[in-house]
Every structure is written in structure tokens, then in C-alpha cells.
UniProtKB/TrEMBL annotation:
Residues 173-290 form the Endoribonuclease YicC-like C-terminal domain. Its cofactor is a divalent metal cation. GO terms for molecular function: hydrolase activity; RNA endonuclease activity. InterPro entries: YicC-like_C (IPR013551), YicC-like_N (IPR013527), YicC/YloC-like (IPR005229). This is YicC family protein. Keywords: Endonuclease, Hydrolase, Nuclease. It holds the Pfam family YicC-like_N. Belongs to the YicC/YloC family. It comes from Chitinophaga solisilvae. Coiled coil: none annotated. Residues 2-154 form the Endoribonuclease YicC-like N-terminal domain. PANTHER family: UPF0701 PROTEIN YICC (PTHR30636:SF3).
Amino acid sequence: MLKSMTGFGRAESTKGETSIVVEIKSLNGKQFEVNLKFSPLLKPYEFDIRSLMQQTLQRGTLDATINIRQNGATRPVVINTDLAKYYYQSITMLANQLEVPQGDILNVLMKLPEVVSPATEQMTEEEWKDVEETLKAALTDLDMHRQDEGLMLEADLMQRIDNIETYTGKVRELDPLRKDRIRQRLEGLLAEHVGKENVDGNRLEQELIFYLEKLDISEELSRLENHLRYFREILKDADAAKGKKLGFVLQEIGREINTTGSKANDAGIQQWVVLMKDELEKAKEQVLNVL
């Protein structure tokens, strides 16, 4: 099963008067990157949070928010009245000296450093366990969304690969006709410019074989079919993280398609090559979202 890198997960838990809300949004990314927003109380556990997220999600660009609330507030707080009084005296003295209105001085005081601080500076181990369980639930929810997205990605990719394989079969059907046309064109040119009676049949046959070998696309088509089979095998692999591997195989598929088109030198085959390239580009776009 494929997993997408895009998804959204949310979990909420309440114990007593404490509510914990975790929300995580995931987008595609080459590596694991997370923008984490949480209460300062969780700072000692930041490494554990990031580690848990990476173990579960492995890759992607994440925005995660962890909110802890009690009785509608983020956390019970303590107001340092002595410090507030000191600030008040300094501010009013400065305002008088500058002859400016004091305005809503209380609102200013409440925003000054250390006037308002959390009632408890450290989170208990039990509280951390509650946060951890809620985080795991949000990660599970996100992972389920990724799996649902992955099912759609897998179906689309299989369709693209099936289409390329079908077009490859069309090229194989046209290839013998292409060779016959090349042979007839060369024989006609020689007969026109040299004269049929002056052509050395054995030498002509050798030159034709040499020329046709240079334009032969059978090896490219065989390698292309092998790459398509390998792509399907990777899709069936139990490993969840296979986006990069699929991307590498698509590069090889593209290389064989391009070589086939350049060597074929045939308008009919080139039409099928264009269709293969179109399917390949669509597959590449989808693989960017695969974990």
C-alpha cells in the first residue's frame, strides 16, 4: 500500500479541568521538516515530540500545534504585583516627564516581561503522558488520512504505468514495419542514384544490417518493460516509504522512452512516444506526493 505525504490529523482529550488539543497538517517534502507550536511547558519534551512524529510519519513538511488549556485558559497564571507596581511607577514618571497621556496603562503592564507567569513552571510526568497519548492519537488520525490518499495515488499510478505499457506494445507492433520502410527507402535511393544493376547485393545487405542495428530499439523497449514491471513490484512492497524509489524508477523509464523516440526516426512511433511522455509526467507529479 502507498501512503501519501498529505493529510490532516486531530485529537482532543480532557482530564479533569485540563484539555489537550493536537492538530497536525502534513504536506509533501523531500525530508522530514516540522513547524512545531506548543506551550512553553512542553519545551523539555520537544525532542520526544519530534522523535515520535518522525517515527510515525517518516517524511513530509508538517505544521503541528499542541494546546493545553485549563478552565478556558492556557494555564493558571500568577501576577507579580511587586514587579507590576515597580513598572507602574517608572511608566507614570516617564509619562509625566514627557507630558504624554498614560492611557490604558494596565493593559501595558500586563504585557511587560515576567509580570504574568504560569502558576506551575513544570509539567508533571502524568500530564506529559496525557499529552503523549493525545499526540499519538492525532498521528494515527493523520496516518489514516495518508493511507486513504495513498489508495487514490496508487490507482492513478497503476493506470499511468498500464498506459505506458500499452503504448510500448503499439511501438513493438510498428517496429517491423519501420524497418521494412527504412530498407525500401535505402534500396530505392541506391537504385535511383547508382542503378540497381550496379549495387553489390552482399555489400548492401551488410550495410543495411549495420544501419538497422544503429536504429534498433528492441533493447530500449525490453528495458522499458522491465522498469514497468519493477515499478509495479515496488508498489506491492510492504515498505510504506517508497516515494523516492518510485521516483528513481520513473527517471529510468523516461530515459528509455526518450532514447526510443530519438532512435526510432519514425512519425508513427513518435506519436506513441509523445503519449508515453505525457503519462510519465503525470506519474512524476503524483509520485512527489508519495511517502
